[in-house]
Amino acid sequence: MSEAYHPILPGLILGLPLLGAALNGIGAFAWRENKTVPTIVGPLAVLGAFVVCLLNFAAMRAAAPHDPSLVPLWTWMSSGDLEIGVTLLFDQLSVLMTLIVTGVGGIIHVYSVGYMREDPGYSRYFSYLNLFIFFMLILVLGANYPVMFVGWEGVGLCSYLLIGFWYENREFSDAGKKAFIVNRIGDLGFLIAMFLMFGVFGTLDMPSIFEAAPTTLLAGGGIATAVTLFLFLGCVGKSAQIPLFVWLPDAMAGPTPVSALIHAATMVTAGVYLVARSGVLFALAPFTQAIVASVGVGTALFAASIAVQQYDIKKVLAYSTISQLGYMFVAVGVGAYTAGIFHLMTHAFFKALLFLGAGAVIHAMHHAWHETGDHGDPNDMRNYGGLRPLMPITAATMWIGTLAISGVFPFAGFFSKDEIIWEAGVRGYAVLWATALIVALLTAGYMTRLMVMTFHGANRSGESARGHLHEVPAVMWIPLAILAVLSTVGGWVQIPEVLPLPDVDLLHSWLEPVFAPAIEVASGGAVGGAHGEGLAHEAPLGGGETSWAVGGTGLALLTVIVVFWRLSRRRYLPAAESAEPSGAASLLYHKWYVDELYDRLVVRPLLAVWRGCWRIVDDRLIDGTVNGLGGVARVVGWTGSQLQTGRVSTYLLIFMIGALIILGSLAF
Amino acid sequence: MSQGYLVDLALVLSAFLFAIGVAGVLLRRNAIIVFMCVELMLNAVNLSFVAFSRMHGIDGQIVVLFVISVAAAEAAVGLALILAIFRHYESVDLELFRRLRW
Fold it and tell me: What's the predicted TM-score (pTM) here?
């Protein structure tokens, strides 16, 4: 530790996006027609926060602190032993995350200016987007689990609001609800994990928990396993892993920049962040680690297989995101936290790029068909084809993204994905290693298919529409270009020393102080016997790191070339003229019928139960009681009312009889 | 002796008058007659007060004075009501006046 690091203007990092959200939120009512204010306020709020994050990054680099810096803002709850403060935590991991969130977020904000310009809800859109950035920053900066949970729920809320942004469409607003409800299951896990942790540690502050955990918890014991499993349940929901991944493909109903920001680059990676952040706890629970890695690799394979047969460009990218998130969970599951965060970062670059590129295509198609009055699906790749000469910048940048995600050297994805696969291999997880390799090839395959169907071959958008197809404006392609650069150089922060290249080790050394305790616990004898002896130097099939790195990128590149060569010869028909896929392709086209399965197994039984509650408990029991009581009152009232004849003499007669009874009773 | 006999006689007369009043109120339909029967009941009670004052001192007679004055006021109000009813229904038949119910 050289000199002390003090977080610079932490209030501004959170304050600017919140202020932007508030201003745009007011604007959505007060100056609905004014597009200038959101155009300036929206991106500037995030880019301003990005600048502050950069300052913090620079300061932290200079100081190289070993311990996290805490910024206590105020006490949130204080009740008995429970003491929760709104405290921010600045360490290498959280600062890196704030850079990704505000950096990629800022780029996407700028892009949104072009993409959403025509939308009547322009100001509302930026309000939600700014609010999302605010909550995402709370999530990554929270120094205790409850504060993190606030961010966790907040981004979920913004996700819901933005998926259902075009709420006039029933299908879209249903997709928002689906995301929200599926995430509830995971959030319940997060909550239970917090209760358990408070029970065990008596505090929810992350630094204290991580310090106490190795001595308090029995390594591999029931409590450590339970806490981490429940935490992971939260991650499964947020990061769309099996079995809770079904909401993410539907989340594509939102505007495309939203898909890029929330459902690819930032929010869905929160689960990976949570596992990495709680690395000490997970290192104490090898069983959970195994579950995390297995779920990750299973999801990666499953989602990649679906992506192969999708025709909606955003659906392909959505399943690709799920698959790549699976990779990240493999990394953090085998204990290679830095590799997970590395892939999180590079994925944020190239997946944001791919989504924004897809958005550019959709934007162009939408406008072209708007001009011609056609009513096709502007998301369906069967309606694209041959767009490369018409949209050269989009095509070029998306090709960079495709090569990056496929793991082709020297693009970003190569370095991060290679590291994950290698880490899984040398830790002796042969199945994980082999599956991850297969998924890498599938990834290269479906991404090339996407590119071929979109940009190559014959154009299928229709004769009249073709003339209206043109490149997107600069406000949209400049973000694409920036992200393309990042997708290229983003991986160069961590170049394995085995390659005949300059040895760069920025990320590992940067994150070392954060992950050191977890790695120390994991290698501390009792947990990982195999880890304790140090890692193997060969992949499960033999061969050293160099040969697999070279071989991996070679295989990926080969896949890209073969798929390109095969598919560019195929003739696709526009969506309206296409038949449904049959056979095995149909199974993949229908996403393994998972939605249908959930519908049968969960949704319908639940609906039947609730319908029973409604028809029997509510209609019969509760309404019956209430109506019955009302009926009794009516009958009694009616009977009583018959005494009221309106005839004075009747009243007097009764009065007299009453008086006689009273007098009589007095007499005796 | 004769004094107690007179009191008994007065009380019997009072009870008789009161019963006539009650019967009239309950059975007759003409509001004026009912009103007169009410007066009859009041005066029946007055009679018994006066009779009792023979035995229990002056108090009963004082009460009678009060009753007479209140009855006078009641007559004024009652007759005004009957007049109002007559203006409305052009009749003083109580059978018609049955609207004060549910």
Answer: 0.80
Summarised one tens digit per residue, pLDDT across range A523-572 is 764 444 444 445 666 777 777 778 888 888 889 999 999 999 998 888 88
- From residue B46, give the alpha-carbon distance in Å to each of A128, A257, B11, B17, B60: 89, 100, 10, 11, 8
Residue A294 in tokens = 């297995």
The angle that helices A430-455 and A392-406 make with each other, rounded to 10 degrees, is 170
pLDDT digits (tens, 9 = 90+) for A449-461: 999 999 998 888 8
What pLDDT is recorded for position A526? 40
Task: Tally the C-alpha atoms within 13 A of residue A45's C-alpha that lie toward its C-beta.
Answer: 28
Instruction: Find out whether A37 and A103 touch, Cβ atoms under 8 Å.
Output: no
Using only C-alpha atoms, what is the Rg of chain A?
30
**A274-284 pLDDT per residue, tens:** 999 999 999 99
Look at residue A411 and give its three-state secondary structure: coil
Output the CA angle A93-A99-A100, nearest 5 degrees: 90
Half-sphere exposure at residue A644, Cβ-oriented, CA atoms within 13 angstroms = 9
- The whole-number average pLDDT for the span A518-525 is 76
B94 contacts A646? CB cut-off 8 A: no
DSSP codes joined into one string, A192-218: HHHHHHHHHHS--BHHHHHHHHHHHSP
Closest-approach residue (CA) in chain A for B99: A646
CA A337 to chain centre: 18
Per DSSP, which regions of A347-476 are E strands?
A: none
What is the average per-residue pLDDT within A280-293?
A: 92
Count CB atoms within 10 A of the CB of residue B35: 20
- The enclosing H or E element of A514 equals helix A507-522
Residue A475 pLDDT greater than 60, yes or no: yes
pLDDT per residue as tens digits for the range B2-35: 667 888 899 999 999 999 999 998 888 888 999 9
Residues sharing a CB contact under 8 Å with residue A616, sequence separation 6 or more, in sequence order:
none
At residue A231's C-alpha, the angle toward residues A145 and A135, to 5°, is 45
Residue B69 pLDDT > 70, yes or no? yes
Complex-level ipTM: 0.77
**pLDDT the model gives residue A536:** 65
Please answer whether residues A150 and A142 qualify as being in contact, where contact means their C-beta atoms are separated by less than 8 angstroms: yes
Our CA-based measurement puts residue B33 at a distance from the nearest CA of chain A, in whole angstroms, of 13
Arithmetic mean of pLDDT, A352-365 = 94
Q: Is the pLDDT higher at A80 or at A143?
A: A143
Residues with Cβ within 8 Å of A265's Cβ and at least 6 positions away in sequence, in order, are: A100, A104, A105, A108, A347, A348, A349, A351, A352
CA angle in degrees (0–180, nearest 5) for A140-A142-A148: 80
Instruction: Tell me which chain A residues have a C-beta less than 8 angstroms from the C-beta of B94.
Output: 647-649
| CA distances for B101 relative to A145, A605, A640, B82, angstroms | 69, 56, 12, 19
Q: How far is B26 from chain A (nearest CA, A)?
A: 5
Residue with tokens 């009041």: B42
pLDDT for residue A169 is more than 60:
yes
H helices of A375-429, in order, are 392-406, 412-426
Question: Do residue B98 and residue A647 have CB atoms under 8 angstroms apart?
Answer: yes
Q: Which residues contact B60 (CB under 8 A, 6 or more apart)?
A: B49, B50, B51, B52, B53
The reply to whether residue A653 touches residue B26, judged by beta carbons under 8 angstroms, is yes
Indicate the residue of A641, A646, A652 with minimum beta-carbon distance to B99.
A646
CB atoms within 10 A of CB A570: 10
